[in-house]
Amino acid sequence: MAPGTPDGRGFWDRVFRGLADAEERFRERLAEAPPPSQQLVIGFLGAEGRPLRVLEIGCGTGTLALRLAREGHRVTAVDISEEAVGFARRLAAGLAAVTFEVAGADRLPYADASFEAVVAAKVLDHLDRAGLERAAAEIRRVLAPGGAFLATFDPPLQEVPGAYCEPEDGTRVYAEGEYEGMVWRPVSDDELRRLFAWGEQLELETTADGERRLGGRRPGG
Ligand SMILES: C[S@@+](CC[C@H](N)C(=O)[O-])C[C@H]1O[C@@H](n2cnc3c(N)ncnc32)[C@H](O)[C@@H]1O
Q1: pLDDT tens track for 79-102
Q2: Ligand 1 mean position, distance from CA 59 (Å)
Q3: C-alpha separations of 46 from 9, 106, 138, 143, 188 in Å
Q4: Is residue 174 part of a domain?
């Protein structure tokens, strides 16, 4: 993040601390069909037809990572929030072999070309502009040649209530209420296309409910 812009981890820690009693509910959900946005990721990676080394960025509760591991992929999942990672590790116990680690999207602690797929579900709009630029470069760096990436984005949070301050790059940092400490920056389609222009087969699709999906592949496979 740019100097002085918070990274939002305090907000996310609060969110995931609030789920401390919800482990059983999430465990039960894992036995059900995945929600459509997870289904999309599972199908996209499943189409490769072989187990992949997958990195998930901003894994939250870890349900997508766990589902991908159950599909046979070797999954490493990171999140900036220690509370999220703690929750995900507890949820994973006895379910699947996944590694969960605390790390920011813009500084991935992995060697170049470590993964055949990178997934970022609903996280890249929670970085400021400098952070997103670095995250896009990090995704490219850790992807093996020919590797696939997939990002999904929630519908724009324009209506999220509460006062916020807005540094020059258009990042909202919420200052009060339920969303205090949340960092959110609307990312345009053009910006996404530019940031991920290094990927072949770049697709940008917007669903009827405003959710966006971006998929691509690092050249050289
Ligand atoms: C909207 S939630 C999405 C969680 C999960 N991917 C999902 O689809 O349910 C955003 C997640 O991104 C994480 N996050 C926010 N900023 C991050 C950053 N800079 N690096 C890594 N993770 C981040 C948050 O802790 C949170 O778990």
Answers
A1: 999 999 999 999 999 787 899 999
A2: 6
A3: 32, 26, 23, 17, 28
A4: no
